[in-house]
Amino acid sequence: MYSGSPEASGRSTNNNIFLPKLHFVYIIYSKKIDRYYVGETHNVEKRLILHNNGNYEGPFTKIANDWRVVLKFKCVNRSKSIFLKKFIKRMKSRKFIEKVIQNPEILSDLLTKKY
């Protein structure tokens, strides 16, 4: 989606000007275990492959191999994506996750209040 763009790579676009790498908060869902997982990365597609192949570091997603992306939310930098990921996880609520999936603008509102 964004591969090759200066925003995705963090490459210089003009002499010494660097644009930050875009990051994403993502929510994946496994029908097999009926669970959601929230993460952040700059490459959601690659991360999904790692989750489904059991090659991801964390043990939680290794118990299923049918993960699919249900939300991909673009952030301008990693600190904002980490903030959102931690906020969602702190809620410890499936209901909240499903609300965010249905209304992603909730995440925009959180960033507006935080930053």
UniProtKB/TrEMBL annotation:
It comes from the Bacteria. Pfam families: GIY-YIG. Residues 21-98 form the GIY-YIG domain. SUPFAM superfamilies: GIY-YIG endonuclease (SSF82771). This is GIY-YIG nuclease family protein.
